[in-house]
Structure formats: C-alpha cells, structure tokens
Amino acid sequence: MGALSHIRVLDLSRVLAGPWATQNLADLGADVIKVERPGAGDDTRRWGPPYQRDAEGRDTTEAAYYLAANRNKRSLTLDISRPEGQAIVRSLAAQSDVVVENYKVGQLAKYGLDYASLKAVKPDLVYCSVTGFGQTGPHASRAGYDFIVQGIGGFMSITGERDGLPGGGPQKAGVAIADLMTGMYATIAIMAALTHRDRTGVGQYIDMALLDTQVAMLANMNTNYLASEKAPVRWSNAHPNIVPYQTFQTGDDGWIIVAVGNDGQFRKFVEAGGEPALADDERFATNPSRVRHREVLVPILAQMVRKFGKDEWIDRLEVASVPCGPINTLPEVFAHPQVLAREMAIELPHPSGGVARLVASPMKMSETPPVAHRAPPTLGQHSDDILRERLGLDDTQIAGLRESGIV
After folding, report:
1. Cα(116)–Cα(109) distance, rounded to whole angstroms?
2. Is residue 253 flagged as an active site residue?
3. Which residue, of 93, 169, 334, 362, is most buried by count of CB atoms within 10 Å of its CB?
4. Catalytic option among 179, 207, 315, 385
5. How many Å apart are CA 105 and CA 15, to the nearest integer?
6. ATP-binding: present as a keyword of the record (predicted)?
7. How far is Cα 25 from Cα 370, in angstroms, rounded to an integer?
C-alpha cells in the first residue's frame, strides 16, 4: 500500500510540469488517470527520437521524453471539446480527490471543466492549474515555455561563463528546470491541500506558475540582490570569493570540479599536481591573494591539471582530502557505484513487448516507499478498464463512444 493509495487523481495535463507532479503522486501510490486527446495524446509522445523499443529492438511511437514523466499512470483517451467527453470528465472528477491541468487561462471554463464547475460536483476537490505566468497579472494569457521563463525569471543572467571569457554569455539549464521545479512545488502544494482537506473537509484551488517558481528558486541569489540592490553576475564555473573553486579540463579531455575552501587545501592541491611552489608564492599563498590574482593563477592551474587524466586526479585529490568531483557523462553516471547502489535505474515491462528503462524516484522512505509498478501507458491503453470501473459502462456503450470519436 503506497502512502497515497487512497487518492484518485485526474490528470488533464501534458508535456512536463503537470505530468511531473502527477508522476510523483503516482509513484507514492495514487491512482492517476491521464486524459489524452484521441489519436494524438500528450505532445511529448512524438518528441523523439529516441523512442521506446519493442521486443525486437525496433522503435515504437513512444518517445523517451514522454516515458520520463508518465510512469505508474493509466491512459484514457477522451475528446473534451465535445459535450459527451466533458460529461465523462465531470463524472470522473466527482470520484476524484485531485485534478491537475495546464490549459491556457480560461480555456477549460469554456468546457465547464474549470475549478468552479468541478467544485460544484465535488465540493472538497483539490484543483491545481499549472501555467506559464499564473492566473492573474498582465501576462496571464501568454503561453509559457520553460526556456523563455528561464530568461524572464533571471536564471540565465546568473548561469553561464562570465562575459568576456571564451563561451561567455547567458545559458539555459541542461534540463527544463522551471518545468521540473514547478512540478515539484505543485506536488508539495497538492499534498498540503489534501492534508488541509482531510482535517477540515474543505478543498481548494492551486495556482502554479512557471515564472513564480523560477523567481522563487533563485534562493540566495535573490536575497543577495534584495539585500544589496546589486545584481549578481555569472560565475557558473567559478566562485566570486574563492579561488580555485571551479571546473578544470584534464589531460584525457575529461573534466573535474575542484572546490578549495582554505589555504591548506590549496597547498595539498598543488602538491598533488607536482607544483608545490605555488603555495609559497605570495600572490597565491592566501585566498584573498588568490582572488586578487585570479587571472594569473587560473591559467597556471589549468596547465597543471592537464598533466593527468580525470580518474587519476580524483584519486590524487581524494587521498589528499581536497574537495573534488568528476563531471560525468550520463554513461558514467549510470555506471557510478553510488548510483548503482541506490538503484536509480529501473526496468519495467512495456506494452510494446520491450523493456522500458527508466529512472527511479529518488524518495527513499522506510514505510511507504515509492514503487514503480507500471510502465508509462500507451495512448488510451486503459480507456475501456476506466470506463467500466469508474462509470459502469458496458461494452456496447464503450463501442458507441469509440464509433463517435469521443474515446
């Protein structure tokens, strides 16, 4: 029994932020019904290659992007633009604890599927809307894209190499970080709303925005600015107040991170690199001196690091107790002994006959751990089961819905 095995979720969201939240709930045991457009489904089903492979190793139509955010769910195809489809959604909502959607502001009201409409059929419903800019404000009607929000929300102003350096300029994160963090915040908000409902019997509406989340997650960079009124600058591969605290390329074209926090660690670092005299040079002997002479020191250290390969550097620095780490490629990540020990890669049988290789939930819980028990569903895979189980429809009624294009 999962922690949320008593919770039913109606998932009207697609792409990433909403599905990320509902996947968290599904991992914790909630019964999540993913409602998708007949014949098309979630946009990300087509965001490939790469694709899920069948038992013979051939590509299916299930993109890996879609697989990342939809495990443990059931798929129901439904045309919600038609009255019959809307009626089914209302019937399912009446039996659900949570509804999650990421349509444009006001769009579901046209279908009678907004919070006010569904609250009328389920007064204690928890209803979560996920949009780019929220339900209020001058930009509320705009479509929200993660890349754009990373820029508007300030993330890219502090991410990337410093201006004036090779490759300098703003950069986006390597994943859709605003989407993912919005999904995480949405999960927390839904859990809080369910707890409140269980204590009071009162449901509520949750208004989640990518931009709000992007602004909030800048954490200390936000408060640094608010306290000083000075905008932070990009120091992605270095530290403004500590040297060396950055990345270096190694002799085998790998990369390492060296995080020297004090003068003793600096001495051990340069001794490990065969350049002990650097620790006695008055320009580099103390951290304030190293910060002042950063432009001179860093090229010297970069040349020193080129003497050895990545693995040898990690071995040398770990023996010397110098904080360090490799910058791993994904093949190296999934071969890492700690990642293997934590069982972060999982395999689930896929309806195609192949095996879906997925990433496990990182939540480790002693009594109610997340369980991956169902591969991301194919389009409409569970439509008949859901209609029979939840609405009591028989085969003739379901066939009629299919013939009319409702399902």
Report:
1. 8
2. no
3. 93
4. 179
5. 17
6. no
7. 9
